[in-house]
Design a protein that fits this description.
There is one protein chain. This protein has two domains: 62 residues, no CATH class; 147 residues. The chain contains eight helices and no strands. Helix 1 packs antiparallel against helix 2 and helix 3 packs parallel to helix 5. The radius of gyration is 21 Å and the shape is flat. The two termini are 18 Å apart.
Length: 215
């Protein structure tokens, strides 16, 4: 595994227990401790996450490409939810997750000695998965937008529109924008899986791929 893979996988996996433990320490403590202690509980959770990384992160990185796809899918869902929350329900930013997804899947395919037929098949399945996750994000975002009384005002102020936005316009924006980013998500995932595969194959070498594929 190359240094860029080790570093990237380490960051992606390492952030998961830190964020989860930090948020758990924060939210779980709210009903039980004084307000002034909540942040200390969150920091305690963060330290627990760091300890988890110290104990397990090295092993996770070493065995990343041999993990079951379900593990990677759960990690992707974690970051999708985090991205959705961080950008306050705006789904367009979730499209960026297609890039690291393609990077990891392409690397896994290269290290497993996949041929071009399998690469295209896995790329299509991966693109469908990321698009489905984004579709769920879009549904959640649309629900928030359609049930909020301030959506029209927020959109008008964001884009400085000289006219009032109607409910029909909001639905059109949601439908048109949702379809557009779903198509973009599918294409980006598929494209980056193939490009990442070619990138890693060029550096692993054909002899290594042949031995790996013949196991």
């Amino acid at each position: 595994m190359r240094k860029i893979e080790i570093a990237t996988i380490g960051v992606v996996f390492g952030a998961v227990p830190i964020v989860i433990c930090f948020l758990a320490g924060w939210w779980i403590s709210i009903p039980f401790v004084p307000e002034s202690w909540i942040f200390l509980c969150a920091l305690a959770g963060l330290l627990v996450g760091l300890v988890v990384d110290l104990l397990f992160l090295k092993s996770w990185v070493q065995h990343a490409y041999s993990m079951k796809p379900l593990v990677w899918m759960m990690v992707y869902l974690f970051y999708s939810i985090g991205m959705f929350g961080f950008f306050m329900g705006v789904p367009v930013f979730n499209v960026a997750l297609a890039l690291p997804a393609g990077f990891f899947i392409g690397g896994w395919l290269a290290h497993s000695g996949a041929d071009s037929t399998r690469v295209k098949k896995v790329a299509r399945h991966s693109a469908v998965f990321t698009a489905c996750v984004l579709a769920l994000v879009c549904i959640a975002s649309a629900t928030i937008a359609l049930t909020s009384s301030s959506t029209a005002f927020d959109l008008g102020g964001m884009f400085r529109l000289p006219f009032q936005i109607t409910p029909a316009m909001i639905i059109a924006i949601i439908a048109g924008g949702g379809i557009a980013i779903l198509i973009l998500q599918w294409w980006l995932t598929f494209t980056f899986v193939e490009r990442a595969y070619k990138y890693f194959i060029a550096r692993i070498g054909p002899s290594t791929v042949t031995r790996s594929g013949s196991r």
